């Protein structure tokens, strides 16, 4: 404690002497009239005296007693100036000295609270460390202009990277799914980036919600390696429950992502779309760099850690970085990054595929355990992809995102149109519209019967409650063929379109629209939607009738987006 106080006193003395010296030095540079010459000479003399005292303090390893005598002499110099009339132009500097003295006192008091004041706006809470990164980067809680913030402290030895980071933050933070940037401060050794304070990371969220519900053992070998303890996760889980109630990231009946988790994944993709439109690749996309904020009734995901982003030239949208500072965490890097250090927007898409898999499987990685991931990624050995075979839409999308050939990966702007992100109403609407386009001898009809029937394995009426089949057969003018995909789609269409006219017992069986109704058929025919989607892609991907399922904006260029829907079939 004594050593700490001595260090603090020494620091404050040095700050004070520097302040006095700078003030007097600037004052002496003014040219006053001849009538002021005596005051000028005296001021210059006092300035030179303080300069000598400063040099003595910084050039010697004097004892604390000698240092106190030096500062006392400096104070005498300043007091002698305060007691005598000073030139008009000197008064602002005297005010400046007094203001700095008050600021130094504030700094001194803040040391007792483990706080560090940087400039006039920023206070860093050194005792509230949020996390650590590579090359000395530390993130603290703090306040900026009275607002709670996250403060990212970076070594000035990487100032070139910091300038790039700041530029990217300014360019990219005007989006609800990108962490907001408030400002930047500097001291002698560090740069302090002032960022929006979030509640926890996506990595934290997946872990804390999986503690009591995961069918897999919570093992750091396949979870992203971190230093957080189980107690910390339990505390955060309590905070989350107290704020939002019973948080569910998965449906109970089929263990698929809940609407909340799908919305968080949409947030991630939306933020990535925004960055890519600005010509920025993230280069370090991983669960710990996706932050979560708690709102009144929901959660919101935001992309963070701009420190290793790189603005792309519009003419050449790649960046080669074999030896540059700030490489991404290897477990989430694409093979082309690991092998030759080459980055494109497609490398972000590979990382996105790993993140989606991570969320769906409660923290697993598609390329296996932590120690083997890089080796498996280089050889395209997807160890754990079988874990999502019961979720065909996710299997379909993630397989495309993890393509070893980066040119075959979909773009961020295309991802949200994939069926994995459709809500229940859109899923049912797509099946209904497909049913309406099935003519008896149409090519689409033949392709569906040929492609999808093999996935049914048996007559579809054996998987549907008999009461539903009996009721619909009685209400229909045409009978149903139980080995026909078209008739299964017709059954779903009629149940959905005439839901209000169904008997109460049938409504109870299929559940209310739209979520439970969709769950009823998804649980019985899990691959139906994605197989129908693949076939429709081939025949109507560029058609006006199905445009809203494949193109985000009806006025956008259809041909650029159809590249994905054709590639998505793996042809």
Automatic annotation (TrEMBL):
GO function terms (MF aspect): ATP binding; protein serine/threonine kinase activity; RNA endonuclease activity; unfolded protein binding
EC assignment: 2.7.11.1
Organism: Morus notabilis
Protein name (Swiss-Prot/TrEMBL): non-specific serine/threonine protein kinase
Keywords per UniProt: ATP-binding, Kinase, Nucleotide-binding, Serine/threonine-protein kinase, Signal, Transferase
Cell membrane as UniProt keyword: no
GO aspect biological process, one term: mRNA processing
SUPFAM superfamilies: Protein kinase-like (PK-like)
InterPro entries xrefs: IRE1/2-like, KEN_dom, KEN_sf, Kinase-like_dom_sf, Prot_kinase_dom, Ser-Thr/Tyr_kinase_cat_dom, Ser/Thr_kinase_AS
